[in-house]
Structures are given as structure tokens and as C-alpha cells.
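Team,

Forwarding the record for the chain on the shared tracking sheet. I've put the sequence and predicted structure together so nobody has to dig through attachments.
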Amino acid sequence: MPTSYDLATALLPLVGGPSNVTSVAHCMTRLRLGLADGSRVDGEAVRALPGVLGVVEDGDSWQVVLGPGVVARVTAEFEALLRKERQKDRNATPLKLLLRRVANIFVPLIPALIGCGVLAGVNGLLVNSGRLTGVTPALTAIASAFMSLIAVFVGHNTAKEFGGTPVLGGAVAAIVVYPGVAKVTAFGVALSPGQGGVLGALAAALLGTYVERWCRGRVPAALDVLVTPTVTVLVAGLTTLYVLMYAAGTAASAIGTAATWLLTTTGAFAGLVLGGLFLPLVMLGLHQALIPIHATLIEQQGSTVLLPLLAMAGAGQVGAALAVYVRLRHDTTLRATIKSALPAGLLGVGEPLIYGVSLPLGTPFLTACVGGAAGGAFVGFFAMLGDPVGATAIGPSGWALFPLLAGDANWPTLAAVYGGGLLTAYAVGFGATWAWGTRRRPVPVKAMAAVTEE
């Protein structure tokens, strides 16, 4: 039998989602739901849920039979879930919705980026050491194949996210990486395969989605299967070749140039700012805007030099949490939270420490940012000296980022710089929190709900 939470979670989307639920109540055996539109309920799916004994439909009022005892627990979970989802909707500004969609496009690609990134790092070590030379060509092919076609996956996910046919999005985005584009001239310059990268693929698939949706509403049903895909690929494809690839290529080059200039000329300051501000960006969900930038740098330069700097924010938070753990010895509940969240924090998963420790306490969140700024400045300083540290994939952080390090220097040097940054962030985050961050009483976590909800 599913738990009460599992049953409530499965039930909510089947009755039309939070926006369709107008009232919730229960009697001895039934969950009674008032609905804005009863036709939006998937009655068969509701009846098929394990634990549901039956369904009584009365227009826009639905009664889900769950049995005595069970109904009270499921109703409580259902109401809590409903409040949470509605809070998300209230906080869903247009910017947050856009960033959420960007994340939905790129986050599914992260496992492949990680796997290929680790293999690329291992292959780089083998090539530099001159060992296993018979294996390195195979590893190169395995590690590079996904990146050579990442535009197709971005196009597929973009169309899926924005309501188009995923395969058409992938088809239009595939134009960006097709070798034959070298024979096409746009703005007086021959195109290069891959020009525009993930940005061009995203723009191409987005355009294709809008063309497809425009056609769907105007083409007769009998001709839709033939005309709509053809017009979508043709219009979006020609625009991609003669406009989007050139424009996106210019933008991608500018991103790469800006990142290189930023680190080589203002590395310490850039690291301080990026490392210090990343935790607030994570709290607000704005860090998702950086995903396409990371992907562009990895595709263009082989690694993203921004991620190791941003990873210092999580290290600063680890230092802050350790200071709270040592300083507040008598707060057993808080120490238990820190103890359970710390391993994830060391591996770069910062949300448990943000929402469970530093943000509810208040000041430790700020001192964690100070630690992140110090670590970022450390890594950025070495970039100014000619030893920039990059990452061949996005997703991992903290100690999990070591296998993904890449740069002009050898791996031991890169590891020493990155590790030095982590230790600096730990130490400064710990010291700042010890001095200033443990004097305030904790704010109840419930009071932070409106802040932490995405």
C-alpha cells in the first residue's frame, strides 16, 4: 500500500492540479473535492490508484473513497501539498518561469555531461602521461560524441518544453552541427559546423516550435501530417542557416571572450563577486540562467571556467555549518540537521544546508557568502597568473568536481588550485561564522517558507 503522502501526490495531478481544486473536505471514509471543472479529472486513473476503493462523481464535486482512518491522513497530506503548490504558483514570476523552462531543457542533459566529462578528464591524463595509447582514441570518441551532437538534444528538449514535437525540434537543431553547412554563406561569411552551438540550437528549436504551432491551427487536418512538419523544418531551417547560426555564433564567441578576459584581467575580483553572490542566486533560483552559459563554454572551449569559482559558495557554506555545529553544542536538533546535511554539502549539494541551517539562522548565510567570496578570489587569483581552472561538465561541485577539472596546466596543479580554494572557503566561512554568525537565535524554519519556496 502507498503512504498517505504518495497517494496525495499521485491524486493531485489526476484531479486537474491545484488550480482545479476549489475545496477539500472529508467524512468518515471519503475525500470530498470541489472542482472548478470536473471534466479535467482522469476518473479511470483515479480509480486505478492503489488505496482508492472507489469514486463517486457528482458534476464538479468528486468523492474519493479511501476508508476510515486513511481518509483523514490522506486529506491532511493533500491539503499540505495543495498549499505548497499554490505558494509556488504565487512565487512564479515570469522570470522564474522562464528560468525553470531553461532548466527543464538542460538539466536532463547533465548525466551525459558528467559521464562524458569524467571520461574526457581520464583520457586527458592518459594522453599527457603517454600511457595506454591504444585506448585513448576510443575514449576520445566516447567522450566527444555526445558533445558533438548536444545541439540535437537541446533542440529535442526545447521543443518538448515549449509544446512542440520533440523530434522536429531535434531535426531543426541538427542543422547547426551538420557538416554540410560549411557550403552555406550567411552575411558574406561561410558558416562552420557547430557555429552558434547550444544557443543556436535552442533558438532554432524554439522558432520551429512556434512555426509548428502556427501551422497546427491553420492547416486542414487531412493535410496536417504532411504540411506541418515540412513547413516547420523549412522555415525554421532556412532562418537557422541565414540568421540564427550567425547571430548565435557571435553571441557564443562573445561569451567565451568575456569569460577569458574576466579571469585573466580581473580574476581575483571576479572570483570574489561570483563566489560571494552564488548562494543568493541559488536561493532565488536565478542560478539556472547560468546553465546555457556553462554549456556554451564547455562546447566552445572544452570546459567552463565559471563553475569552479561558483563552487566556492558551497564550500563557504560548509565552513559556516561547521562553525555552527561546534559553537551551538547544546542545540541537538540543529546539530543533527548539520550532521545529516554536511556530506551532501561536501559533494556540492548545497540546498539541505541552505534551507535547513544557514538561511533559517540568518547571519550564517551571509558569513557563508563571505567564505565563498574568499575561495572564489583564491581560484580567480591563480587564473590571473595563467592557471585558470575549468570543469568539463556541469552538475557536480565540491569534492565531486575533482575528476572533472581541466585547464592549461597539468592536473595536479589544477587540483592544488581548486583544493586550495575549497580550503580557503572552508576556513573563512568557519572563521566569519564563529566570529559573527552564531550570536543570533535561529528563526523558525516555517517562517522562512515564503522565502525558500521556488
